[in-house]
Amino acid sequence: MAEPFLPGRVLAAIRIVLLGVTAILQVGLAGSALFQNRSGYHPGWLNETAYAVLLVVVVVSAAWVLRGRPVPVAVALPGAAVVLLAAAAAAATVPPQWYLLPQHWAFGLVGWHLLLLLLDRIRPLLAAFALHALVGGTQFLLAAPLDRIRLGETAIAISSVLGFQLAVGLLVRWVARRLREVTALVAERDRAATRAALAEQWERDQRARSAGQLGTLLPLLAGLADGTLDPRAEDVRAQCALAAARLRRLFAENDDVPDPLVHEVSAALDLAERRGVAVSFAVSGEAVPVPTPVRRALTEPVLAALAAARTRARVSLLRTEAEVRLAVLADFAVTPGIPARSPGVEVTSSSHGDRTRMEARWQVTS
Prior knowledge:
The chain has 366 residues and is of the alpha+beta class. Helices cover 65% and strands 12% of the residues. It is built from 9 helices and 5 strands. The chain has helices at residues 7-36, 44-65, 73-92, 105-118, 122-143, 148-226, 234-253, 260-274, 292-308, and strands spanning 278-284, 309-319, 323-332, 345-352, 355-363. A 5-stranded mixed beta sheet has the order 1-2-3-5-4, covered by helices on one side. Helix 1 packs antiparallel against helix 4 (105-118). The longest helix is centred in the middle third of the chain and has 79 residues, at 148-226. The radius of gyration is 40 Å and the shape is rod-shaped. The two termini are 29 Å apart. The relative contact order is 0.06.
């Protein structure tokens, strides 16, 4: 599945575009207007200083923007204040007849600086644009002669320049919000698909395990039903006890418990105790993650031993960071068979007087 185009990446690309636009406008258009008409600004040093300050703001912002990051708030807010002061200082040097003309280079330029600094902070951005329009309009009204036509032209110029820049900022925020919503929907769809796949896999595993258990249980039930197996015989009773223990383990595997291995062993012990076998269970060490197939291989010798035990059994579980060992010592009415070998689990058996000890060992892999 293709990775969604993340909103953060889109915003990072847009910031880089804004950085390029701002730098080109300042060096190309504003710089050209400034240096071609530098003799008309009074005082000229203030105008040039304002230009240099705005250029420094672009360079400082580039340190974060080119790395795909927004300008931090500790830099963006003071930077916006510096930009507005530089714009007011530059406007103070412009003759009234140049207001809102190309020679009034700072008025249309600083909006791009504000977008570069405050693109990710919509309220400070709106406040900065409003303050810029208020200060610029006030400076114009105080310096230029007032008439209806001039006021109309000024309003149109201010609203068109700042309105376009502000619309760019609002459009970027809208696109980013929509992208976040789409990304959230895609992520939720992926999570739902993953949950469905896991549920389907779990159901298949359950059917496979149940079929495996029934595959050994059905012949036993058929033998009891048609009389070929005698339920009074010790070996038949052991087979029935083992089948019951395996089914009980299968049910226990579905329980949500903090220590599945102990839970599954305890389920087998409970069945043995109901048959009158005195059982003790000792656990050493902290719980370690054990895959379900390995748990089955570890518990199979215990199930077989408890199914064949006559009067008493002792089960011990030892867990370390390196291995898990599950052993059972019991007196058997019939000799239990050693379970088939399982990859990764070693099973050993030894006799001690009238009792037999079986142990399953698993080496923990990191």
